[in-house]
Design brief:
There is one protein chain. This protein is of the alpha/beta class and 294 residues long. It is 34% helix and 24% strand.
Length: 294
């Protein structure tokens, strides 16, 4: 089992013919992802060769879905055009849209996440590394060769920390790793992933990675307390971040005592989540929990 993305997923790439789209489509195909088409309104009818695979290009998401049965789209689209691309995918009825693009205006993200939600399309991102169900499918830019299938479910705001925890726990492996993105507005939250992992029979333990800014981790802690029966281990990036300064992600800013790493750690620990002070310590807590050392 996995959440959101399985070996049966049929993946489109909006922006496949661009530099980043080509590079990561090749990586996704090498990881076993069933990439069935690209989308570019001015390049319909062409094909793109990736090693031993030839992928057709369609003029629209609707056309691509009709021809291939695709149910996932990965977007490598410039920020100015991301909103229109998401709306197109949602109007076509895509089930999952993975928005890799960084620098999407917050106003646009508010609009297209609400639009997609109303039409039944799940958004991962924006400003995210995507998601991977190791051994099954990889939609985005997460390296596929640093871990294996296993028992851990991972949800993270940070792409870099997603990769590090995957590597730290490579001997155990993962059911699915979801990088939800670090912008102030994202389409899928920690809580959404917690609920999905709770319902996934092959996920035994959940790792939650947060960072300073906002209250997503506090809300996730409240959800864990009320609804999650599986063990959860957490890490919050930003213990040494200076107050009032944006750190990396657009959502990572501390205002006064709100959104600090310490406050988030306290909220998670009050909900029964074991929180590491470093990524490596977090990985050790996962190992200890699985070995019965809670």
């Amino acid at each position: 089992m996995a959440i959101y993305l399985t070996r049966e997923s049929k993946v489109l790439v909006q922006g496949m013919t661009g530099g980043e789209g080509r590079k990561h489509t090749r990586r996704m195909l090498a990881a076993g992802t069933h990439v069935v088409g690209g989308v570019h309104p001015r390049k319909a009818g062409r094909t793109v060769d990736f090693d031993d695979t030839t992928v057709p290009v369609f003029g629209s998401v609707h056309e691509a879905m009709d021809a291939t049965g695709a149910d996932v789209s990965v977007l490598f689209v410039p920020p100015a055009f991301t909103g229109a691309a998401v709306v197109e995918a949602a109007d076509a009825g895509i089930g999952l849209a993975v928005v890799i693009t960084e620098g999407v205006p917050v106003h646009d993200a508010v609009a297209f996440t609400a639009y997609a939600r109303a039409r039944g399309t799940r958004i991962i991102g924006p400003n995210c590394p995507g998601l991977i169900s190791p051994g099954q499918s990889n939609a985005g830019i997460i390296p596929a060769d640093i871990t294996k299938p296993g028992r851990v479910g991972l949800v993270s705001k940070s792409g870099t920390l997603t990769h590090q925890l995957m590597y730290e726990l490579r001997d155990i492996g993962f059911s699915t790793c979801v990088g939800i993105g670090g912008d102030p507005v994202v389409g899928t939250t920690h809580i959404d992933c917690l609920a999905a992992f709770e319902d996934d029979p092959d996920t035994e333990i959940i790792v939650l990675i947060g960072e300073i800014g906002g209250d997503a981790e506090e809300r996730a802690a409240a959800y864990v307390r009320e609804h999650v029966t599986k063990p959860v281990v957490g890490y919050v990036a930003g213990f040494t971040a200076p107050e009032g300064r944006t750190m990396g992600h657009a959502g990572a800013i501390v205002s006064g005592s709100s959104g600090t790493a310490r406050a988030k750690q306290e909220a998670l620990e009050a909900a029964g989540v074991r929180v590491g002070n470093t990524p490596t310590e977090t990985a050790r807590l996962v190992l200890a929990t699985l070995e019965g050392g809670v």
